Amino acid sequence: MHPRHARYQVELVATEPLVQDPIAFSFGPDGKLWVVEMPDYPLGIDSKGTPGGRIKYLEDTNGDGRL
After folding, report:
1. 19: exposed, middle or buried (Cβ count in 10 Å: 0-12, 13-18, 19+)
2. Measured in whole angstroms, how far is the alpha carbon of residue 23 from the centre of its chain?
3. pTM for the full model?
4. Are the C-beta atoms of residues 41 and 55 closer than 8 Å to each other?
5. Is there a cis peptide before residue 42, judged by omega within 30 degrees of 0?
6. What are phi and psi of 41, to 5 degrees?
7. Which of 11, 20, 35, 53 lies 20 to 30 Å (CA to CA) from residue 41?
8. For residue range 7-46, what is the model confidence (pLDDT) as tens digits?
9. How far, in Å, are 9, 10, 11 from residue 3 at the CA level?
10. Do 57 and 22 meet the contact criterion of CB atoms below 8 Å apart?
């Protein structure tokens, strides 16, 4: 590993069933993980074009670093 990158560490913070079909995410200033889910892509939630995308947030409520 290049010394310049040694300070970075990748950790898994959320998996199914907490998030499903994520297309975007961002940590907010409040520490919550905001996730855009699109289980309706490409045909709609009912396969007839009905939208079913959603935005949800996840947060660490007990300080253990897991959402």
Report:
1. middle
2. 8
3. 0.72
4. no
5. yes
6. -75, 135
7. 11
8. 778 888 888 888 999 999 999 998 899 999 999 998 999 9
9. 13, 16, 19
10. no
